[in-house]
Amino acid sequence: MSDLPPYWLRDNCPCADCRDQRNGQKLFQITDLPDDLAVAAQTELDGHLEVLWSDGHRSRYPLEWLGAEQEGDGRTEAEKRLWVAADFAGGLPEADWTAYLADPAERAAVLGAVRRSGFAVLRGVPAVERQVLAVAGTFGYVRVTNYGELFDVRVEPDPNNLAFTSVAIAPHSDNPYRDPVPTLQLLHCLENSATGGDSGLVDGFKAAAILREEAPEDFAVLTRTPVPFVFRDRSTELRADRPLIEVDALGRIREVRFNNRSIGTLRGDAAELEAFYAAYRRFAAITLRPQLRLEFRLDRGDCLIFDNVRLLHARTAFEQDGSRHLQGCYADLDSLASALAVLHRRAAALDAIGELFAGEGAGEYLGEAVTMAEHMLQAGALAQAAGAAPHLVAAALLHDVGHFQGALHGRDLMQGQDNRHSDTGADWLARWFGPEVTEPVRLHVAAKRYLCAVEPGYRERLSEASEYTLRVQGGPMDEAQAAAFAALPGAEDAVAVRRWDEQAKEADAATPGFGHFRPLLASLMR
User: pLDDT, tens digit, for every residue of 476-488?
Assistant: First the structure.
């Protein structure tokens, strides 16, 4: 690791003096580091690189992190699945609306398809006015434009856009005259009983990649020529000068803007104009190749979500022998990417918790007749059977995670040492859950001490192991301690968790597994 640049290494120090531990933001400026910064000493220990710096600062880096490769932002061709129509012969990326709402994994699959392939279809979305806004709200925010927060795609008597007629629409992207352009579009079908009017999609990144392969000079022309995209009506005038194909600093395709209807007058010398129009015509011809166009019909209740800076969407002409009415809105990829990343982060956290249940959870639980996992699962099931609020079910399920030694570094309670597992567990869970879950976990030991002090007969009902741990944890509260506990905001919830805790020790009780509780936990995570 000695070849790592010192300023890069120090700039990425993860310690609490260098970064806010809640959000990871840096607490210093790069110019705050000394001009002669150097590594004074370094050693590898327990899977980490420990560095002593010339200014006395100490840093600790996971070796796995140091060896990781650069990740992209997911917006270029390098992180996409480029496709032709035949790639979806087995079916479109789609999901049922009810399942999408209820199952985080299903939602992640849909959003992941939009990010990777550029689109997905939700089936069974209620075919009611403005429902498209609710779909957008499941992963982000609506981009309001001159068309409003939503727009109706139907035949209009005085249209300001050809989309609001019954004519065929060639593959195009929307709003290229905006900067920034809305990067997502949603189209929700309220009715489609007309003859014709089928939807089409073309992967613009694939078309651009074909152009690069077949005619690299034309590709270069379209990446370096700013094109005036213009829209105007009685109340709006918009213009953005951008290339048809935009690449990043490494030459990777990042955006495609393609809309013949909105290209204004490009000016320049004759040779430049001739080169542009030759390249433009070649690219347009590629987008019209039948093998690139995926055609399908949106029926009532279908909602198409697609990447508007990658995919070109189209429509066949339709007869006015029936009604065709879609409602659409615009949104942005960064919100979708954020929602997807949070879903993945939550899934990883739930996997980590689930591994504790499956691993150490199989071990004995303080001398009781159940394993640690059985005890916690029983507590969660008892809370659920009692009709408890979701946050209390979660607290009951997770109340003893502080006992897991490998993950949380507790001490052995049964050897007479108070391992303060309630505090350790609550602090660990606070990375993902709010105080409505963590505080009953934090207070459930105190709740036992409280109940033993104020409820006649409670202590006599404790198991032998629970009586032993009561003494290790400080014994029953005195009158002042009990009064102080009762005044705490989370005391009532902690007492409820404590009661389920004491009951959850039945050998061979039928209990759902951890997977049963995953959707509930996911709904509570921050």
Answer: 999 999 999 999 9
